[in-house]
Amino acid sequence: MPTVLGIAILGSGRVARARLRELNERYDTRVAVVASRNFDRAYELAFPIAAAATDEWEEAIARRDVDAVMVCSTNPYHAPMVRASIEAGKPVSVDYPLALSLAEAEGLVELAQSRGVVLHVEHIELLSAWFVTLRDALPRLGQLHHLTWHNLSHRAATPEDWTYDRAHGFSLFQQASLPSRIITCVGQATWIEGEETFLGEQGTRFGRRATRLRFGFGKEGVGEIEDILTSEPETGPSAEFQVTGEQGALVGKQHREVWYANPTGNSFEALPVMPRSGLFAQDIAVFLDTIAGQGRPYAALNHVLETLRFADAAERAVKSGQRIVLSPSTA
Question: Which residue numbers delimit the Gfo/Idh/MocA-like oxidoreductase N-terminal domain (predicted)?
Answer without folding.
Answer: 6-123
